[in-house]
Design a protein that fits this description.
The complex is a heterodimer of chains A (283) and B (396). With 283 residues, chain A is mostly helical. Chain A has a single domain, classed as MetI-like fold (Orthogonal Bundle), CATH 1.10.3720.10. Chain A is built from 15 helices and no strands. Chain A is flat and about 75 Å long. Chain B has three domains: 84 residues; 177 residues, Orthogonal Bundle (MetI-like fold); 34 residues, no CATH class. Chain B is built from 18 helices and four strands. Classes of the chains: A mainly alpha (283), B mainly alpha (396). Chains A and B meet through helix 1, helix 2, helix 5, helix 6 and helix 7 of A and helix 3, helix 5, helix 9, helix 10 and helix 12 of B.
């Protein structure tokens, strides 16, 4: 193990390390803590210069309640869910199919097509922006939640395919061979044999895609102008314009927007990290 | 013998029936998609008053019909005797069909469309007959680009982003080394350190915009401990008097970009850290012990034994950091919107601004900027694919 395990050091060094940990963490998360403190203090505190001290009164419920009462935060949150969940299902589902095709079958186009998915996944969004707007206008889905879902699902299929293909490539191929010899149909092999084996990959992808889409800002601003279809990331920025100088409300709204991915991360930590660090260990 | 022939005959019959029915369904679906369903019809059918609300039900009806058509298509193909004879050659294309078509329409083809837009002058609109209203202008957009100071500022800022963003890799490694211990509660520390990555960049941007605020931000507060005093003024209120005023990081054209990069580094460091933590987990203990016997420790051990084993993690960390740097958009949009005076523009934001933001409808010019950005990114993408290709060849 590297660096040297701390328990091999002197007790003093061990104590120093254990003290250093929370201090480092505090510094690291200082901006977040500060904004949390702001979100639970009354507006008068900020005006009097009490930005970081103990709040004169705790107004967590009032502040967060005010965000919901004064704005469309609730609808923004629901919109985000309506965007993130279908995208997650579509892109992960499609990637199971494409990943299976690219990992299991040996045909000449397997590698070039795989690279096409990978390359497409890394292009700058701006090169896609205007044609995607154009397509959405022609399909009459611009400014709607399904319009955004369609694009996200197509784009995320690239990343999911990269992930799925590599995961399926690592499966024991003999299993599929022997099923074929038994005369099992191609789709049956996929459905009954391979899908149950890639459940961990599906879980990891679902968590990741949900977070990516929840946090998306660019595509939402480009494809949606209609206030009733906006997701929370764009909504929060709009609120920022409305609540000029009302930092207690801005910070409450920001934290509200950040909450669901954070919860998702803590609940599904193992899958989340497995997804993000794909490829960081092999080779 | 006889029963065998009859059996195969039967199978032949069912497959022909299956194909005929599927073919009729497919043709019907195509007809319905092309000529029946449109927003006007949905509007009349359900009595929606506004164009915009009729779009969603129209979309769902179209998708429904499309799904039936796809299913019919699959039945037609799998019913054909050619499929039965060449299963292994045809099946992968059936698995690929939907995903690939989707990806082509929304990702691959738009790349080429954007490049072709960059040779035109267009405001994104069509005339009443649905005809394109733009005109072909050749390299005109690129010539304007060459003389556009904002473009060069953006390009320079992109370069600054690329260079400074790379700091995320060594800092991430440093934090990973710091946290790679087994003490009580270390798992919680690791996940809390990872926290900033999970938060949306818009929120990170807002947090930092507030932290940088010269009047009551985090930074001005810390500044106050050194340079400011609270004094009671004539009205009896406390007011802050500073010997040197706190800097307005985002308000100053010289510092704004660095302020945004610092904010962007926060989640990126967290990402690199988690990559390295996973990498460190898989460093072979045997090699470390062997090196220890040879007297290697500290920096030497890290450089010659550990880092070579962390190579895959480093590679991915660099790739995601480069892409993150070139994709920087959300933070600029929330923190400065390219200002002050265009000093924080990067290509990604400047393109957006020209095409649908302040510039309003300079689609051709925006596409030219996007094309430049795309070719910069293409260098990295090609390198990444080359590396992947090498791995594939080795792995077989």
């Amino acid at each position: 193990m590297f660096p040297k395990p701390i328990k091999n050091y002197s007790p003093k060094a061990q104590l120093a390390y254990k003290l250093a940990l929370p201090i480092a963490l505090l510094l690291w998360l200082l901006p977040l803590l500060a904004i949390f403190m702001t979100s639970i203090r009354p507006v008068s505190d900020i005006a009097q210069g009490n930005v970081f001290g103990i709040p004169s009164s705790f107004q967590m419920l009032q502040n967060y309640g005010e965000v919901f009462a004064k704005t469309d935060a609730m609808r923004y949150l629901i919109n985000t869910l309506l965007i993130a969940l279908p995208t997650m299902i579509l892109s992960v589902g499609l990637a199971c199919l494409t990943g299976y095709a690219l990992a299991i079958y040996k045909f000449r186009w397997a590698l070039p097509l795989f690279f096409l998915f990978v390359a497409g996944n890394f292009v700058p969004f701006q090169i896609l922006m205007l044609p995607v707007v154009d397509i959405s206008v022609k399909l009459e889905i611009i400014n709607t939640v399904p319009g955004l879902v369609m694009f996200h699902a197509a784009f995320q299929t690239g990343f999911c395919t990269l992930f799925m293909r590599n995961f399926m490539k690592a499966l024991p191929f003999e299993l599929i061979e022997s099923a074929r010899l038994e005369g099992v149909g191609e789709f049956q092999i996929f459905w009954h044999l391979v899908l149950p084996l890639v459940k961990p990959a599906i879980a990891a992808l679902c968590v990741l895609i949900f977070t990516f889409i929840w946090n998306d800002f660019f595509w939402a601003t480009v494809l949606i102008q209609e206030d009733s279809s906006l997701p929370i990331t764009v909504g929060v920025r709009t609120l920022n314009g409305e609540f000029v100088q009302q930092w207690h409300l801005i910070s409450a709204a920001s934290l509200l927007a950040a909450m669901p991915p954070v919860l998702m991360f803590f609940l599904m930590q193992k899958h989340f990290i497995a997804g993000l660090t794909l490829g960081a260990t092999k080779g | 013998m006889t029963s065998n022939v009859a059996g195969s005959n039967n199978r032949f019959d069912t497959s022909v029936n299956q194909m005929a029915i599927a073919g009729v369904v497919l043709a019907l679906c195509v007809y319905v998609l092309m000529f029946v369903i449109n927003t006007t019809m949905v509007q009349e059918m359900f009595g929606y008053s506004r164009q915009i609300s009729a779009r969603v039900p129209t979309f769902f009806m179209r998708m429904g019909v499309l799904l039936v058509a796809i299913a019919a298509g699959f039945f037609m193909i799998t019913g054909h005797s050619y499929y039965k004879r060449n299963k292994l050659a045809v099946a992968p294309w059936l698995f690929l069909a939907i995903g690939l078509a989707f990806f082509m329409v929304y990702v691959i083809i738009p790349i080429f469309q954007s490049i072709s837009f960059s040779f035109t002058k267009w405001n994104g609109l069509y005339d009443i007959n649905g005809d394109w209203t733009g005109e072909w202008v050749g390299l005109h957009n690129y010539r304007i680009l060459w003389d556009d100071p904002n473009f060069w500022t953006s390009l320079k800022n992109n370069l600054i982003w690329l260079v400074l963003f790379m700091l995320a890799v060594p800092i991430g490694l440093f934090i990973a080394l710091f946290l790679n211990q087994t003490v009580m509660g270390i798992r919680i520390y690791k996940s809390l350190f990872f926290f900033p990555f999970v938060i949306s960049q818009v929120v990170v941007g807002l947090i930092f915009a507030w932290a940088y605020n010269p009047e009551f931000g985090l930074l001005s507060e810390i500044w106050g401990w050194f340079f400011c005093d609270f004094k009671e003024n004539i009205m009896g209120n406390l007011s802050r008097v500073c010997s040197v005023d706190p800097p307005s990081i985002l308000g100053d054209a010289n510092t704004a970009t660095y302020g945004i990069i610092a904010a962007g580094l926060w989640p990126q460091i967290a990402y690199c850290m988690i990559l390295y933590l996973t990498g460190l987990n898989n460093v072979s203990p045997d090699q470390i012990e062997a090196a220890q016997l040879d007297g290697a420790k500290g920096w030497k051990m890290l450089r010659h034994v550990v880092l070579p084993q962390l190579k895959p993690a480093t590679f991915i960390a660099i790739v995601v950091t480069v892409i993150g740097a070139l994709r920087s958009f959300d933070m600029i949009a929330t923190m400065t919107q390219g200002g002050p005076y265009g000093s924080t523009n990067v290509l990604a934001y400047y393109m957006y601004d020209q095409a649908v933001g302040e510039g309003v409808g300079r689609y051709g010019y925006g596409s030219a900027i996007a094309t430049v950005l795309f070719f910069i990114m293409l260098v990295y993408i090609s390198y990444f694919l080359y590396r992947m290709y090498q791995d594939e060849k080795e792995g077989g």
